[in-house]
Design brief:
Layout (H helix, E strand, L loop, with lengths): L1 E8 L3 H12 L4 E4 L13 E5 H7 L11 E10 L8 E11 H14 L3 E3 L2 E8 L5 E8 L2 E12 L27 E11 L8 E5 L4 E4 L6 E8 L3 H14 L5 E12 L8 E2 L2 E3 L15 H20 L5 H32 L2 H10 L4 H6 L7 H16 L5 H22 L8 H15 L4
Parallel strand pairs: 1-2, 1-9, 2-6, 4-11, 9-16
Antiparallel strand pairs: 3-5, 4-5, 7-8, 8-9, 10-13, 10-14, 11-12, 12-13, 15-16
The structure holds flavin-adenine dinucleotide.
């Protein structure tokens, strides 16, 4: 039986990123990937990475002419349902081909010393006499293949084949995602029929959770939409959107469908001999369900602890617990806060109220730029407050919506503070999780 320090399940962006970093620290790393190399990263074509993330995360930055590069843009418009008052946020974004970029990350992992076994599917864990993980059972070339490992990392995407296979009392949440915990995303690749409509950036309609963005063809676009429940429901929202949003005339070239987690991550992401990342740990952004770089942020936080745990042979839940604390106190708290705000506001506000928020200046360019770290000028806050007051006086904002927004803000502050107080050791975790559950019950799920 082959023996490794680490077996990583899945050679998507998360598995490859982790493999490189652990191999660089001198660990023997094997990635098992159920797909052949030619199919890795083919679940859809185009995805985005913000320019600033390449340096922050130490990942390759393809440029025009490279196989993985598709396009880039800087203008990100946010629009009201009628698209009368679009706001512009400046943020440099690079569009990449998922297959080619995944291969690039796979090649980096291999160059660092990790081995990748394609067409090898995880089936189950192996446990030692003490009931702790000591490897995996996989299927390779039609045969069962056992591989020993001190740490197994589940990077298998939203199926979370490792996490959901663990015994319920193993010390980590094992429930699979439900239809309410994910976005069903439909991408329409189109050719724009009128040159005056060629895109200089993307536009996002929060009311419909939909967007139009550039694609590899400068004369084309991707019209996307994400919704919970089902693809049918997403299509029904798209039909509603087409009634109000003045989409440019287009010819449909192809449709891609995919799903992405839209729920909180497990409170703990470690267990004895086990670590979870990527979509398998629901590490997607709570603003839009994107998960490539947000997962890398978690792994960047985790890698020193994983390295030490392996070197000291302490690959236990207790020793690796600081990964939970570091993550939950930082990106975890930020995502929890945004989720609470978005769920509360999006679920409560009606069409006319969304329309009013853009028209009145409650939502402004400055406010949106602040989401990327720019300071909010005092006049922006004053304008937003004036918008609220006038909205209530003119009955364009319902009191019930304001109350819901107030409750969302309270929940957002509460859940964020709670995450920042994540216990430093497993002692106290049960009480912490109980309280977090209680706040999440109040937050609810996005409709
Ligand atoms: C339409 C759409 C558009 C998106 N756009 C963006 C975007 O612009 N930017 C962004 O950051 N995110 C985006 N996302 C989300 C992003 O795609 C995911 O968050 C990200 O790909 C997750 O990477 P991962 O490595 O965790 O999982 P995956 O990419 O799903 O990789 C998991 C790997 O595990 C393998 N695997 C599964 N089961 C087994 C098994 N039993 N044994 C071995 N291997 C197994 C799979 O074959 C796969 O290769 C989008 C999602 C969708 C659906």
């Amino acid at each position: 039986m082959d023996q490794y320090d680490v077996v990583i399940v899945g050679a998507g962006s998360s598995g490859a990123y982790l493999a490189k970093r652990l191999a660089q620290r001198g660990h023997r790393v094997l990635v098992i990937e159920k797909l052949p190399k030619t199919k890795v990263g083919t679940k859809y074509d185009i995805f985005h990475i913000e320019q600033r993330e390449f340096a922050r995360l130490g990942i390759p930055r393809p440029v025009k002419g490279d196989a993985a590069w598709a396009f880039e843009f800087e203008k990100n418009y946010n629009a009201d349902p009628l698209t009368l008052y679009p706001k512009c946020q400046l943020n440099h974004v690079v569009g990449l081909h998922m297959h080619e970029y995944t291969l690039l990350l796979n090649a980096e992992a291999e160059a660092a010393g990790a081995k990748i076994l394609y067409s090898c599917a995880f089936e189950d864990f192996m446990y030692n006499e003490a009931g702790k993980i000591c490897g995996v059972v996989s299927r390779y070339r039609g045969r069962e293949k056992k591989i020993g490992a001190r740490l197994v990392a589940d990077c298998s995407g939203m199926a979370a084949v490792g996490r959901t296979r663990l015994p319920k009392d193993y010390g980590i949440e094992t429930a699979p995602l439900t239809d309410e915990d994910m976005f069903y995303v439909i991408l329409r690749y189109v050719t724009l029929l009128d040159p005056k409509d060629y895109l200089d950036g993307s536009t996002f309609w929060a009311y419909y959770k939909s967007w139009i963005a550039p694609c590899a063809d400068p004369h084309g676009a991707i019209i996307g939409l994400g919704a919970c429940h089902s693809f049918d429901y997403a299509e029904s929202v798209f039909a509603e959107m087409e009634k109000t949003v003045p989409l440019p005339p287009y010819r449909l070239e192809k449709i891609e469908k995919g799903r992405t987690p839209y729920t909180r991550s497990p409170y703990s992401m470690v267990a004895d001999g086990f670590f979870v990342s990527g979509d398998a740990g629901n590490l997607t952004k709570s603003v839009n369900g994107e998960g490539v770089t947000s997962s890398m942020v978690q792994m960047q936080l985790a890698v020193n602890t994983l390295d030490r745990a392996l070197k000291l042979n302490k690959v236990t839940r207790d020793y690796m617990w600081e990964i939970n604390r570091k993550y939950n106190a930082s990106q975890g708290a930020e995502f929890a806060m945004l989720r609470a705000l978005l769920v509360g506001v999006v679920n409560a506000a009606g069409f006319d109220e969304f329309q009013y928020a853009f028209e009145s200046g409650i939502i402004s360019d400055e406010l949106l730029n602040a989401m990327n770290g720019a300071p909010i000028p005092a006049k922006t806050i004053v304008a937003a407050l004036k918008g609220f007051v006038c909205g209530v006086a003119s009955k364009r904002l319902r009191i019930s919506t304001l109350k819901a927004a107030g409750a969302a803000l309270k929940n957002a502050v509460e859940i964020s503070s709670h995450y920042k107080r994540f216990p430093a050791s497993p002692a106290g975790f049960d009480a912490w999780a109980e309280k977090a559950d209680e706040i999440y019950n109040r937050i609810g799920k996005i409709r």
